[in-house]
Fold this protein.
Amino acid sequence: MGSNSFHLVIAREQDGSIQLLHKEKQLVQLADGLNDDNLLSEEAMTRGLACLQDFKQRFSAVPGPRVRLVATHTLRVARNREQFIRAAYDILPYPIEVVSGHEEARLIYNGIVHSQVLAAKNIVIDIGGGSTEVVLGNRTSATRLSSLRCGCVSYNQKFFSGGKLTAEAFKQAMTAADKQFASLSKEYFTGDWELILGSSGSVKAICEAMLQFHGDELITLPRLKQLRQQLINWGHVDNIVLDNIEKKRTHLLAAGLAILTSFFRRLPILSLTFANGALREGVLYEMAGIETNSDIRQRTVDSLAQLYHVDLPHAEKVRMTMLNLFNAVADEWQLQHWQRTLTYSAILHEIGIHINSRAHHKHGAYIIANSDLPGFGEAQQHMLALLIGNQRKKLDLERIETMEPEQKLTTERLICLIRLAVLLNLGRVSGRLSIAKIAASANSISLTFAEPRHRFSLFVKDLQREQKQLKSLNIDLNFSFI
């Protein structure tokens, strides 16, 4: 769900590669509905929701599909995005990943990796509707990720409103883009790249213009300047005559051209070629697990565990307890999509001990909330921080109370499971308790232990304290001993 277009891709994995079965896009221009206060208009939301309704028809009859919904810049910055997300969930009942700028850049590079052979040193630019991602990479690995606040839809709205194409409009747009590119770190200004690539619609449209005027798709600064002058000569988007470019794309050509020209002016770029593949391909290959590191989120979790010296044997015990609880209640509590997030919370629940053991759950939540987590969408990252922050002691209910009813119910149930998994491994005593039975109803969970009660008097007190905490989550904890 991009700032300009929404894209649907249906594919299957076949012998280690992706086979595209169907793809289409609709021009939604979500970013056009974003005002100066970052509020998304009702009209823009309606366009987006209508598109999702159309897309639903394409795969609603596909048996057992794995569905991933990814949203980029406009929903990333929209202050009222939850209104759109709730309505979208009613149409397509799958969680929407509002990816961070860095995550968007990583997925773009991942898509290019699987679409062509890359060199030892690469730089990639992807001009989207609301943001521009610039990535440095070493063959299959991205080494530097950046997301800039300049996009073809937002710049078109700001500098080329009404379709007028003037020298002054280009000057203002390029000056604004110059400031964005100037904010890049010094690694972007070395010029030491073997391959310079551009991806997605804006760059593709400019390549098509190059083909019409010069006979090939190579982009250079002199050619960009010639195209800019031609657009100024035409004077208005309605006068543009470019046979190879879709009419609905021509009205964004000037904004994309201004941003790409600034990229050439600010960085030591001599020429650029178009890259096959981008964010959509990156998402598809990641879903299929077709990459050297097939699970980027697991790699991120493992890296954090190593960085903060997690006690991995103990984390594994908590994880196994978590899975035992999850498998018993997932269907009744409708948590099937949350297994991996719970698993990650179990592995990382003690990372805050690296800072201070006294309130390590709070320290752990802060680390997760403020770290760059490749592979995790914004909502996933917030949920992971929330689970780790509420794994023990007094619950922080302030954020939970502001959630919508369905999201609140899911969150309460997830917190219940992480708390019980941690509690059941309290003290690090191996094999101290054996759970004979786990049962759940809408608002309760019952545990039956295959041990005599009198042998675990302290643990009984722990459970009694936990009953009071879970009661504030509207969950009754029942327990008994054989």
